[in-house]
Amino acid sequence: MHKIRRRALIAVALVLILCAGLAWYIALYIRDGGMWVSLPSNRHLYQNGELILGTVTDRDGVVLAETVDGMREYAEDETVRRAMLHIVGDTQGKIGTGAQTKFSGELSGFSPVSGLFFAGKNDSALKLTVDADISRAAYEALGDYNGAVIAYNYKTGALLCAVSKPGYDPENVPADIETNAAYSGAYLNRCFGAAYTPGSTMKVVTAAAAIETVPELFDLTFTCSGSTVVGGQKINCMNTHGTIGLETALAKSCNVAFADLSLLVGGETLSKYFHQFGLDTAFEIDGIRVTPGSFTAYEDGTAELAWSGIGQSTDLVSPAAMMRLMGAIANDGVAVTPRLQSDTKSSSERLMSAETAQTLTRLMRHAVATVYGDGSFPPALAGKVCAKSGTAQLDDAASHSWFVGFVDDENCPCAFAVVAENAGAGSGVAKTVAAAVLRAVVSD
Description:
The protein is built from 15 helices and 19 strands. It has helices at residues 2-36, 78-83, 85-88, 99-102, 104-108, 132-142, 190-193, 202-213, 246-251, 255-265, 267-276, 303-310, 319-330, 354-372, 428-443; strands at 46-47, 50-51, 55-57, 63-68, 71-74, 125-127, 147-153, 159-165, 222-224, 227-230, 233-236, 242-244, 283-285, 288-290, 334-336, 348-350, 385-392, 400-407, 414-420. It has a five-stranded antiparallel sheet with strand order 8-7-19-18-17, with helices on both faces.
């Protein structure tokens, strides 16, 4: 009798394990089935290793990729093809962030119920939030520089462009792409997958931390004679600013003032705000992972802490994360997560108080009005652009140029981040790129 009961229990346990395994498989099938069927070996979807199904369009219906007579074709305009490369992706799947790879299940028409029964019978269409004209403007403005240009609607989360260089024309892939140094990193979308030294764009984070933690902050003054000494090390400033307050210090990007401010705030507090603002946290844009940045909480009173608060040292930030932070400042402290598919919804989270966001908006608006110049931007946005430049200094090459910011206008809710690699110090190149993007945004 005991033997029969034991065997029965074993049988029940095996059935339960089998049912649990089946349930787990079904759950995985529902979640990942589209990805499974999209392997290049699936002849329903691929011929000679190239995708043959599905049409990709921009937000206005401009065709970015489609199959014509069994051949994969891309946008008619070569510049658009190059500008949209890292968002649309290639037919071989080498660009992991491309829509043709990340959203291959939607493109195939896969359904957990019917599988691929209808594949090839009803060509699926995938509409993206990005805009071909804005992306073309960003690509052309970068010129010969490599880098990243990303912009989005900070109210809805819709990505407007995410342009990365170097790249290539997907209809004319260079024969030497694997060996030519000019194409090094051509498969990487720098908007999502790269992290750069932020330079003085980090001063926005330092200012935010000071606003919330340093008493009587706007009564403080800083004296800049062109340099200061911290922990026995000299920290240089680009200019001699004299005695200034925070508003002027941020506008003129005074290293001396922000070295002093970093020491007042402290390493642990700066690290806390860096994390709170999502700059060292991986997040996803419709399943596309954004590379997290990093910040080291150096010991208080050290030169390393001063440099990190200025945006040098070991600081790293991705363009997408910096754009999201700019969107949060513009949106009264609430960050809306970017999205790429037109039919998905964005989540949101509060990164800072509305009061802090409004103070930062005022400071960044002052920087444009007094230093960068409203004349650099479209007349329709006069008095509305808020921004901060940055110079990411490198030991063995020309500095990277940053320009980040947003339009303080609910009728044009655009936040942006631009990095022009090895473009030299100051806002120059990156500001010009940002201005081109904003011109395209308002004229679209």
